[in-house]
User: Fold this.
Amino acid sequence: MSVQERKQRERAERERLIVATARELAEQQGWDAVTTRRLAERIEYSQPVLYSHFRGKREIIGAVALQGAAELATAVRTATSAADGTRARVAALARAYLDFAVRNPAVYDALFQLDGGLAYAQEDTPEPLKDAFAALLETLDEVTGEGVDPGLFTEVFWAALHGLATLTRAGRLLPEDAGPRVELLVDRLAVT
Amino acid sequence: MSVQERKQRERAERERLIVATARELAEQQGWDAVTTRRLAERIEYSQPVLYSHFRGKREIIGAVALQGAAELATAVRTATSAADGTRARVAALARAYLDFAVRNPAVYDALFQLDGGLAYAQEDTPEPLKDAFAALLETLDEVTGEGVDPGLFTEVFWAALHGLATLTRAGRLLPEDAGPRVELLVDRLAVT
DNA sequence: GAAGCGATCCTAGCACTGCTAGACAATCGA
DNA sequence: TCGATTGTCTAGCAGTGCTAGGATCGCTTC
Assistant:
């Protein structure tokens, strides 16, 4: 049995290598540069090997997205837990979220921009995605305000952050005023 | 000279046909289905003809985007001018914007999601894009609040709308609660 | 230790993409 | 009517995601 176990281990290791390499390549040169040929070459296997691990490129993007969701949740929780006071916590959340988008553009794309074949806002939504949303909700729950559903409020707040992140990165908004924009958003949306 | 004029007219007409066909095809089957071959076939010319009008596919997307920007501006202005009262005007703006995104997904993508080779938030930004932003600013100026730059406020409000539009359309938010989300956004962001 | 068998991987190829060079034909001015 | 110019098309390039089929390797059994 140990032979099979070793093989399984090696297979899992190679799968990790594929995802890590795809992510690395995407962060370096954008997702357009992540072709199956280039990816195969980098992991030093032939193209079809990729398809023995994933159904296709889409699923590879999905794998990167799940990894990113977990990291995003961690980043948000770390930032909020280090902040004192309600207002500061929400501001920290917003900054951490936008910071993540700036620092990991390819991962952010995989999560929210590209089609990774993942289910969102449904029962069969993968746990990391649900948890990332939960990480936002934990802090935003405090500032939802009376008579408003915390889930709904979180969605709106998240959408605003997402809008800022994507429009800035696509050159639709100049990055210079990013700071004041976040301050304005927090001051207005959050009830403290 | 009239011969040349006729030719110019015919050329311009064909260019309109290309843009209109690209838009139609994109709305029907998504931008992925808009290949240069399919597009050429639909306008009943060969592929290279496209390249005598546009540098490439990107520029065709850009042309659709400019068309969309003008329509978006009109839609927003029509909606706001029909509303009575500040609060109602802002709500009408938000609904008109989101409605435009839902009704013209491909055009919305061309404007804010895809690369149409256009300059945004700069001096050489095409007029229709500037004007679409101006259409938002005209109404949002009223509810900016003291001590806040109207341009900055418009950017934030716009980003929030953009976030709602894209996340909803990408399946990240369920469309059911679209109404309450807009109400919440307007109530919180706008100072009335 | 050898033989057979199954899992694993690669070569080669399909149908498609955006884009372009060069041949060809139609139209214009002289 | 002739030459030149403009316009259009055919054919092809390099690249894409993905897959069928054969070859090779390593494990298991005798």
